Each structure stands twice: as C-alpha cells, then as structure tokens.
UniProtKB/TrEMBL annotation:
The keyword Electron transport applies. It holds the Pfam family Proton_antipo_M. This is NADH:ubiquinone reductase (H(+)-translocating). One of its GO terms (molecular function) is ubiquinone binding. It comes from Handroanthus impetiginosus. It is a multi-pass membrane protein. Its main location: mitochondrion. One of its GO terms (cellular component) is chloroplast thylakoid membrane. InterPro entries: NADH_UbQ_OxRdtase (IPR003918), ND/Mrp_TM (IPR001750). Residues 9-191 form the NADH:quinone oxidoreductase/Mrp antiporter transmembrane domain.
Amino acid sequence: MPEENEMITALAQNTDAVVEYINIPTIIENIVSRNAILLPLYGFHLWLPKAHVQASVSGSIILAGVLLKLGGYGVVRFLFLLDKINICDYFIDFFLYLSVYGGLLVRFFCLRQRDLKVLIAYSSVVHISIMFFGLLGFSFFGYYGAIFIILSHGFISPIMFYFLTFIYNINHSRSLLILKGLVIVSPLYCLY
C-alpha cells in the first residue's frame, strides 16, 4: 500500500517521478491490449469488418465515428509516457513496421473487396495505420497530423456509411459489381 500512495502522490506532483514506478512491459501491455484493438491496427483489426457488416446503420456510424477514435485518444494520452521512458529503444521498430506493413497489405484487401461496407471498414484500418505511423514519429507534425486524421476520419467515415445506406435503399445491394455504374447516375454519392 505505501508504494501505491507514493505513486499517486508522485503522479499528482510530477509525471517524471511516475516513470520510476512504471515498468515497460506494463506500458506495452496497456497500449497493445486496450488501444491497438480499438485503433484498429493490422493484426488487431479482424473484428472490424465483421462488426460493420453485422451492425445496423446507426451502429456502424457510432462504431466508425466514436469507438474507433477512442484507441487513437488512448495512444495520444500514452504518448508522453512513451517518450519519457525511451520506448523507441525497445518496441518502436515493431510498431512502425506493423503500421506500414499493415497499411499496405490492407490497401490490397481494399482492391479485392466487393462489399462496400467492408471496403469502408478496411479503408478505416488504412487511415488509422497512417495515423499511428505519424504518432510514432514523436514529432510536432506527426502528432498534430495524427490528431487531424483522427478528427477528419471521425466526420467522414460516418458520412460514408450514411451515404451507403441511401445507395442500399435505392439499389438493394452493397456489391460493387452491381453498383459499378453509380458514378454516372449519381456522382454526389461517389464524391466520398
């Protein structure tokens, strides 16, 4: 108990003193288990396309607009601790390769996808991978660029699911094979 009280007191006074009480595996476990699943990074993203397909329109809008941004918020909150404990020496290369490799691989998944709802979900994984790559640079532009991507993705992705609902109500299909001439008929929907 005295160690917990000392840690709480140190946290209230100065964040530099907290670093002495935190071990690196605890930080990594917290980031990976709680935030990487919500981000979603490649490898932790397997639930996202299935959740979007099974969810209703309002569920997909909330999932894309709010829930996925909580992982980005968690990483932004952990960023000052990651910079102070020099996690770059240990795991930064792994997370950088994971975000770059995952972003490139999921882009190829997007090219092969025929369902528009799953396509939007996979494109969210690509955008979040770019955001995570920017955050791991520990730079001014990377930090604010990642926040810009989080905010813009929080507005654009729900709008894309909302437009997809209109397209589905008119054509009764989400398949790209059936909707391939949609850009000629209604270019406003294809703007997003």
